[in-house]
Amino acid sequence: MFHGVLESSLSSRSRLVHCQCVSSLTQTNTLCFVNQILASENPVVPAILSIARILELPVVRAGEPEVLSGFEHLSAAVRWVHVAETPDLAELLTGGELVLTTGMAFGEGGSGVGAFLSQVREAGAAGILVELVPGVSRNVDVTILALREAASHMDFPVVLLHRRVKFVEITEVAHRMLVSDQLAALERSRTIHEVFTALSLESADEEEIVSRAAELIGAPVVLEDVAHLVLAFESSHTERTELLVRWAERSRRVGYLESTGRGAGEESWLQTPVGVRGQRWGRLVVPVELANDDDAAMVLERAGQTLSIARLAGRDQKELLHQARAGLLHELRQAHSLSADEVMVRSMALGLADVAHYVPVVLRLDTHSGQTPTGLQLRERELLEALLAVLASARATALGASLQSGQIGVVLGVSAKQLEEPLLERIFRQLAREQAGIDWSVGVGHGKGTAKDAAHGLDEAAQVAEIVATFETKARPFYRFTDVRLRGLLALTQGDVRVRSFAEAELAGILDPLDTAALELLELYLKHGGNKSALARTGFLSRPALYARLEKLEDKLGVSLEDAESRTSLHVALLWYRLGENQ
Questions:
Q1: What's the CATH number for 2-179?
Q2: Which of 35, 94, 397, 465 would bridge 364 by S-S if both were Cys, CB 3.0 to 4.6 A apart?
Q3: Where are the domains of the chain?
Q4: pLDDT tens digits for 417-438?
């Protein structure tokens, strides 16, 4: 029986100490119950002075305490310890006291014990400690029986002391503990204040703020936006997959609060809003049970204030989400030990749905002469926002963010592999229609069955986009390696010293020193397949002047342009050179 009460009353605790408890209400089972409550308290934060802690005091244990009722309330906070022997006690109590009495107010044979206990309970006392020692006074056994009977109908702690104790020692020790706990709480508050003040002054990012909050609480902490997408998290000792699995679905069941507290719903998480009142852009949550909600609430509130200050200093909600998505994409491109399940859970927390097929895509902005880094960044952000809007209108699921300056990476989710091509066509044709002037290239890698494998294909997609950037015209809305052909092969071998030596030898006559006019003439000539008449019809030069320029070009190159193999070699070398210019 006692063990069953113990399990139910401590289900919200993070740690339990197992002990064998007998069924009878003796000193042994009382101390067993008290020890389990004490063992569950978080040692990192100041402990609450509870009835359980008072029962563990040597001076109280010497009285052989027996808990008669209110087992589930032994962890309630005690605000003060009050000795009372008068039947009119209600006016002397203000709530939260532990009342000590020898039963003098119970009346003859305990006739008034029920009324006394009810009066103490209604006055808001935390509990009552009754010293009734057999053999010391008349009819004490009858009074004990009456006390047991009255306690059986009470829902707050009633404790019987079987041996005499000095109440003055109990009050002295308890009050000293109260003062000590208050000082510890003040010190804890000061520490938390200093930690988050330092983070604000150091312009710490969101991940660091969340990480320190989790460290101070000793539990996982998650920062999410109003759409329940995870902006930052620290899993503490919890598995990341377990923490974030079906995050958006679970989080939606927890109602938003305008102040710190536990939300209603299936998962009553401790939370605090982030942002100024009326402009909330997210919330911090602790998605686990805690031993000390008050301490965790204090940490969350300070962390939320620090995050709000960070936003006012220049970070906005979209920036946080972009940063979180970019962080995951960069992590996936590196060598790591993340499992496919963990990648999927983290991706879903950032808005990517669990579908059958994923495609890596990279958009590369064309370089403009005189373009400043700031200008490129603004163009990149504008393109990303436009792409996300198109994805939303197409109801497509994707994880998109900046990979590096001028490049946007996307892991696009497709419900079925055969729908990949139509979805890509729809998205990038619509993007081209909605943006004034196409000044970007789109590369697509091989689709995969998992988000993790698809993310590895972002490098391939980036290479394709770089190659497409060298095209004079872009007839397709997106390109794959199979579409770039010889340019793709040369891009893969761009760093090969043998290819470099070949290309530089072929073009040496016009590269050292650089003859830009000759280079352009060669490019036009090769573009027309060596057809001089076709080249002349473009209006580039009159025929006599053209023929003279071509003869001079042959002299510089040291080869005949009439020779098909020479034209092929020069074409390969020229493609290699142009690819290098665009990197």
A1: 3.40.1390.20
A2: 465
A3: 2-179, 203-320, 352-484, 497-581
A4: 999 999 999 999 999 988 867 7
Burial of 150 (0-12, 13-18, 19+ CB in 10 A): buried
Question: Which residues share a beta bridge with 448?
Answer: 358
- Does residue 505 contact residue 489 with C-beta atoms inside 8 Å? no
Q: Which two tokens stand for residue 55?
A: 């029962």
H helices present in 64-166, as ranges: 113-122, 140-151
- What count of other Cβ atoms lies within 10 Å of the Cβ of residue 4? 9
Identify whether the C-beta of residue 321 lies closer than 8 Å to the C-beta of residue 384. no
Structure-token pair, residue 463: 């290479």
DSSP 366: P
d(CA 372, CA 238): 45
pTM higher than 0.70: no
What is the dotted CATH code of the domain comprising 203-320?
A: 3.30.450.40
End-to-end CA distance of the chain: 76
Distance in angstroms (rounded) separating the CA atoms of residues 6 and 34? 10
* Domain 352-484 falls under CATH 3.30.160.340: no
Mind listing the pLDDT tens digit for each residue in 174-223?
A: 888 888 777 877 888 888 888 988 888 888 888 899 999 999 999 999 99
